[in-house]
Amino acid sequence: MHVIVFSPLLTPRIKYIFNFIFKDILKAEVEFTGNREYFLQSEHAKISYAEQPIGDELFFRNTKLLLSNKVEELKMKTTTFGDYTVPFPVEDSTLPFDVFAASFFMLSRYEEYLYKEKSEGNFEAKNSFQYKWKVLKRPIIDEWALILKNMLIKKHPSFKFFQKKFFHQPTINFTLKPDIPTGFFRKTKFIFSSVFNKKQRFISTILEDLTGLGTNPEELINSLEKLKTQPIYFINFIEDAKNRLNYVHSSLFLKDKTVGLLRPCTADYEKSSLLKADLTKLKQTQNSSVNLISQQLKVLQLPSCYLHLLSVGISSDYSMGYANQTGFRAGTCTPFSWYDLQLEKVTSLNVKSYAISDTALQYQSAGDATTMINNFIDAVKLVDGHFYSSWQLKSLSENAKFKKLKAIFDEMLKST
Fold first, then answer.
1. Which tens digit of pLDDT belongs to each residue from 83-127?
2. Given 121, 155, 189, which residue is the final one in a domain?
């Protein structure tokens, strides 16, 4: 038995969000039809998404968002559902709001497209409707999916869903130091060029070492080998427009690790050559071919950022989150394919959302931060989702400055 969905109009948006909820989150097969007779004769679990029900199926009254192919300002009406606010209220429906439109609105980051037309600034958590509706701290789409699952089981007791398991993976980022050239002349030239190049971060890493704030990436990463789930390491390469720096020796300890590229997101397509050069360096850190993955922590501007990543062949991204605010930016703890609202199509970019970062925790007490993380983990475990967190490698060092963050990280691992 699988789920059969009836809708008089089957738009790309409808297929995308139903597939995400039923296939990706609930692990159930889903079929679509616009044929009323075929739908009524089907023996599968029936759901209709329309203006009126057809029979005794689970009926969800539709709203305009999923029937449209435009990105336009919406007059957001809301209603109360449980202890929080939800958008797209409807009447005479299985739920008092259009759960599929609400899910699509959050997952597609619809409001961020509108925001970029009005502002050149970064989209922050406080700008989001999820923040205003008090659902930012919850994987709310996954919670709604669980409600739908229980409704289907109640109506079709023999319906079987494939089992999922909770999954946790930290992501850790750092700057990889290049090999220092051998020979007096080449070494001297390298050091002087680094000193007078303001864009270079090499000297800053040297200064950190001298002041005791630096880290030994190899030593720290080797100490994390004992973790149940190995982290993904996102590497920042020092800016090297002339491609003179080499990482053959300094990257040897990363050969058997899962690595990705840490790159400030840019919409400047003239910088594609630099990005491609860094991707080449990334591949050289591995013994075999790697899936191209990335993470941006400072700026995530949609859709330009993701379009840029796709243009250079990146297939998976871990940037969906707020660097200075905890929460589920896309409303989910399940990886999803990014939907391009400009082209109205599903893309090949797979997106993983991080719920917490060390920069968002640095001003909280260790106790408060640990309690918050445990609440996030419990929420994700409830829906058997994926819990991702983002950390700077130096935050996990034994340096006294990062003692609190290291303790928070260790406590997080105990809870997962």
1. 999 999 999 999 999 999 999 999 999 999 999 888 877 899 999
2. 155
Q: Which residues of the chain have pLDDT under 50?
A: 198-200, 207, 209-212
pLDDT in tens, 203-218: 555 545 444 456 789 9
Chain centre to alpha carbon of residue 46:
31
Same domain, yes or no, for 139 and 210?
Answer: no
Q: Report the alpha-carbon distance of residue 316 to residue 284 in Å, rounded.
A: 19
pTM of the model: 0.91
Q: What angle do CA 149, 153, 155 make, to 5 degrees?
A: 120
> What is the CB-side half-sphere exposure of residue 405 using CA atoms within 13 A?
22
How far is 349 from 342, CA to CA, in rounded Å?
15
Domain range spanning residue 337?
167-415
Examine the fold and report which residue of 97, 129, 155 is the final residue of a domain before the chain moves on. 155
d(CA 195, CA 153): 66
Give CA–CA dist 396/405, Å, rounded. 7
What's the mean per-residue pLDDT of the chain?
88
Token duo for residue 115: 């925001």
